[in-house]
Amino acid sequence: MNTHRGEGRVRVGLLQTRCDANPAANLDRSLGLAEEAVRQGAQILCTAELHGSHYFCQTEDHRHFALAEPVPGPTTAAWQEWAARRGVVVVASLFEERAPGLYHNTAVAIDADGTLLGRYRKMHIPDDPAYYEKFYFAPGDLGFRVWNTRFGRIGILICWDQWYPEAARLTAMQGAHILFYPTAIGWHPAEQADPGPRQLDAWEIIQRSHAIANGCFVAAVNRVGFEPSPPGDGLQFWGRSFVAGPMGEILARAGQTQEQALVAELDLAQVSATRQQWPFWRDRRVDAYGGIAARWADAPGPA
């Protein structure tokens, strides 16, 4: 099996958890699901976004900066020890303190021997009602990254990144066979009935489209449960973690309310086969895409 070249089979596990205000309990909860995923044969695991805490970005509160930690730090050390003991690759999302007053929404890549391969810092930072992330996080400055692991070449993107085709494209262009998206997304209670179902559909469709356009696997892992955050109304996280194949097909999908270790087997040879059958990479007009780096295609002046 040569997973660096995109050959062979690998089992990925998505740790769909609920989170509360107790970081130690949240980590234990994810580690417990990780053990369950390993019992199902998982070789690469991914946590939900910011899995060590409640989703504190619902409000702007300086007290929440106390949740941040350095990388490497306690959370990475716990996952490194676990990865080495179980021989499993781990993608773990956390609140990174880079320096006093400088913080990132970060995910680390840990190889199956416990080596910390590197980190990805979330590039697209939202600022919406109950998602006040710009208050907490500086935009990522490491670019889009991939890593060779024991079980495959993986790329990491985080939550709001999942709405941007450019992020998926630039990561896939570096040879990622699997795009992992640690996520924390849900409904405002008043919107769950409408437009809630359409929001959920859009979230899944856009990520399945990344799998199709790039001929790779996509794995999105969300949290579940209602998280209150006075004085706001709280958020109902919708779960539905899933794995999609290179043609956008759903290979596995978790439920909407329950914690779950979702495991799916991927045939990495499908990446090359799909790209040969649907030669999107061959037919890209790279000579014509310069304008994609502009903020907007402003109308030209008179000729």
What does this structure look like?
It contains six helices and 17 strands. The mean pLDDT is 96. Strand 1, helix 1 (23-39) and strand 2 form a beta-alpha-beta unit. Helix 3 (165-172) runs parallel beside helix 4. The chain has one domain: Nitrilase/N-carbamoyl-D-aminoacid amidohydrolase (4-Layer Sandwich). It is an alpha+beta fold and 303 residues long. The strands form four sheets. Strands 5-4-3-2-1-17 form a six-stranded mixed beta sheet. A six-stranded mixed beta sheet has the order 8-9-10-12-15-16, with helices on one face. Strands 11-14-13 form a three-stranded antiparallel beta sheet, with no helix packed on it.
Keywords:
303 residues, alpha+beta, Nitrilase/N-carbamoyl-D-aminoacid amidohydrolase, 6-stranded mixed β-sheet, 6 helices, 17 strands
Summary, kept brief:
By secondary structure, the protein is α+β, with helices and mostly antiparallel strands. Helix content is 23%, strand content 28%.
Order of helices and strands: EHEHEEEEEEEHEEHEEEEEEHH
Strand order of the largest sheet: 5-4-3-2-1-17
The end-to-end span amounts to: 58 Å
Sheet-strand content, in percent, reads 25-35%
Supply the CATH class: Alpha Beta
> What is the number of strand segments?
17
Shape: globular
CATH architecture: 4-Layer Sandwich
Mean pLDDT: 96
